Amino acid sequence: MKRKIRKGKSGFLLGVYPIGFEHVDIYVDYNINGGWMDLNPSAEQHGIITIGFCGYRPCEWRKVVAIFLHETAEYLSARLRIRYDPSENASNSSGNFIFVATHEQFAELCARQGEVVAAALPDLGRAWKRYLKRRKGR
Prior knowledge:
Blueprint: E1 11-18, E2 23-29, E3 35-38, E4 47-52, H1 61-79, E5 83-84, E6 98-99, H2 103-136
Parallel strand pairs: 2-4
Antiparallel strand pairs: 1-2, 3-4, 5-6
Helix pairs in contact: 1-2
């Protein structure tokens, strides 16, 4: 089954990148501040990470990189089962998660994150430069 590729005025698929023993679809969305991730949108699809380019707020490259690192670390924390929701309330926000890891688990997270960062960061940088040109043209 073919993956459905989300594309629109505000976002696009940056690419499919290795992240440990799997691959993840990384999207860019010009209209959101922050990011989000989904481990398994469907049985036929890779996990998804979306990186926001700060919506309509002024933004800096370092914030985009921080969002990228945050979302990839959270994705891997969930995969490695070191992210926990301490309550049974399904309506809690993601701000309630806690992360508990041994040094070995943290090292594994860093190794997997290094793989996706090395592969995707150059493409993310090029997308950021296109975004800046687009903003100047407004």
